[in-house]
Amino acid sequence: MASPVLLLVAALCALLVAAGETKEEAAVEVSAFRSRATDPNMEVKFDFSPFLIQYKSGRVQRFMGTTFVPPSLDARTGVASKDVIVDQGTGLRARIYRPSRRAVVGGGGGRLPVLLYFHGGAFVVESAFDPVYHSYLNALTARAGVVAVSVNYRLAPEHPLPAAYDDAWAALAWVLENARHGAGGEPWLSKHGDASRLFLAGDSAGGNIAHNLAMRAGQQGGGAARTAIRGVALLDPYFLGRYVSPGAGRAWGFICAGRYGTGHPYVNPAALPAAAWRALPPPRVLMTVSGQDRLGPFQRAYVDSLRGSGWRGEARLYVTPGEGHCYFLNNLASPKAAMHMATLAAFINGS
């Protein structure tokens, strides 16, 4: 039986001839089509629309999150930003945000909470340098009065999980080292950051990363990491469960190169035993859920598991009715997005 490609080629040839082309012209067209059909740089290996397509050659075509905006002094908020290298070996970079000088002076002797932030994008798109995240971190830095470090972790499929988790671990170590007063490290951290008031946060995939970073700090981080982390904010985080749709399962397998199933605690923290939850170091966790987010049941299960484990901290659930996944990133001026950010800022500042 002829292959589908050969049948399609024959049909194309017939159509070209019927349209008035000579057999020689049609043969040229068919040859080009056959070449494209068998070109590994054009054959699709995995279609992860609307985010990207990976071809059999290994080439990755991303459809979003590739725009770069440089660091700046934000005219609206007075927040300044700059880019730094966290790890020369892996190329890990981050963008640091510092509030206006007036906010720094008024921040209790110039020492401000430090926010370690991880962007979303299904682990495969977006960056710390994207215009959406640049605007969001400018606004959040000003609203919460923090020194923020937005981590540009490596993306799948070129760097499947656990690469992003390892980058988060490296970023945490870098922040703690550079925030030591007078340590001679990154001046925005060493002069203005309070390493004893460290918060982890992230949206979607970034929320997943923040959670797993906190768990790792509790399990193997030692005293400095455990005591420094004062809270974790999970903003519409990317969590699943053991039983999900086939499409969700395939996407997760693509993200981690098949290393972990959908029942793994990396993506299904509700599967963690109670003892693991009790090792979570921060005393406070904020979980935000958008009412129309299909991940909502998994996010709520996280809070239920944490509260039921015997963990001695405070877990807060903040729900925004009628909104979709991570709605708060794209319209910062909307009343719901403003309230979402105010809730996050209050969480960081202890109220």
From TrEMBL:
Active site, per annotation: S204
Molecular function GO terms recorded: hydrolase activity
Endpoints of the signal sequence: 1-19
PROSITE patterns given in the database record: LIPASE_GDXG_SER
InterPro entries on file: AB_hydrolase_3 (IPR013094), AB_hydrolase_fold (IPR029058), Carboxylest/Gibb_receptor (IPR050466), Lipase_GDXG_put_SER_AS (IPR033140)
SUPFAM superfamilies noted in UniProt: alpha/beta-Hydrolases (SSF53474)
Residue span(s) of domain Alpha/beta hydrolase fold-3: 115-328
Top-level taxonomic group: Eukaryota
Pfam families from the UniProt entry: Abhydrolase_3 (PF07859)
Keyword Thylakoid: no
Sorted UniProt keywords: Signal
Name of the featured protein: Alpha/beta hydrolase fold-3 domain-containing protein
Organism of origin: Panicum hallii var. hallii
Lineage, highest ranks first: Eukaryota, Viridiplantae, Streptophyta, Embryophyta, Tracheophyta
